[in-house]
Amino acid sequence: MYGYFEIQAKVGITKHMGGLEATKKLLELCQVDKSDQVLVVGSGNGVSAIKIHEFTGCQVTGIDLSQDMVERAREKHAPGIEFQVGDAENLNFAADSFDVVLSESVTGFTNKTRSIPEYYRVLKSGGYLGLNEVTWMYNPSSEIKDYYRRVMGINPDSRESWLSLLEEAGFKDINSLVRAINYRQQVVGDLELQSMDFFRIWGRFFRLYFKDPEYRRSVHRLSREALHMPRGFDRYFGYGLYVGRK
Ligand SMILES: C[S@@+](CC[C@H](N)C(=O)[O-])C[C@H]1O[C@@H](n2cnc3c(N)ncnc32)[C@H](O)[C@@H]1O
């Protein structure tokens, strides 16, 4: 059976809360400009990494744990951007390598006490970390927490917990901006993140769905899980932009 990410990676779907509007805000908070070397952790299908380069002119390296995702990103042939397989919890870069580390909807899937210190290690002194991460707006029940963990493999945190994780890793000048999800904007944002190869994504999806029984079974299982979402599940979370300086 394929997990939540594998189902998406095989066809090249990725998303983050707040879409490219949130990415632009993160770039502004981290003061990214064209002289910066930027590491994008968990670059997924590559669209937001490519947009980060287009919006600012900075040099971008994108890493993702999934070989499938890295292939989907490389297929876009974006000049000046390198995509590599890599793990947020054990970054394959020397200390003090990047001016900025950005990560959107990734760190919540990792062991945060390993990944966030890794972001700190590879940043140059004075460099910015910018995270866009799922954030509890209210204290969730254990049923809701469990649903998130079991179905999507993610452990969101409250704003206070995200802030202490950054502080414990050594970050200074920490800032945050937490927003509720606006569903209409989110749908537009999700479509933007798939826009570069919308038809290829659906072509791949239907090919896999009809030709790979394991893929079909995995999609059915995930759809069943989605139908059994706890009531009010989506009221509990929003997204937070968290910025700190080394
Ligand atoms: C929800 S997607 C977000 C992708 C991208 N940041 C975007 O905004 O479209 C999460 C991505 O994180 C990647 N990921 C999960 N755990 C990771 C880890 N430990 N190291 C690097 N990437 C990871 C997944 O493969 C997936 O591509």
SSE topology sketch:
Blueprint: H1 4-11, H2 19-29, E1 37-41, H3 47-56, E2 59-64, H4 67-74, E3 81-85, E4 98-104, H5 112-122, E5 123-136, H6 142-152, E6 157-158, H7 159-169, E7 172-180, H8 183-194, H9 198-211, H10 213-227, E8 237-245
Helix pairs in contact: 2-3, 9-10
Bound molecules: S-adenosylmethionine.
Describe this structure in words.
- The protein is α/β, with parallel strands linked by helices.
- The protein has a domain at 15-139 and 155-180 and 236-245: Rossmann fold.
- The chain has ten helices and eight strands.
- It has helices at residues 4-11, 19-29, 47-56, 67-74, 112-122, 142-152, 159-169, 183-194, 198-211, 213-227, and strands at residues 37-41, 59-64, 81-85, 98-104, 123-136, 157-158, 172-180, 237-245.
- Strands 1, 2, 3, 4, 5, 6, 7 and 8 form an eight-stranded mixed beta sheet that branches.
- The mean pLDDT is 92.
- S-adenosylmethionine binds at residues 5, 14-16, 41-44, 48, 64-66, 69, 87-89, 104-106, 109-110, 193.
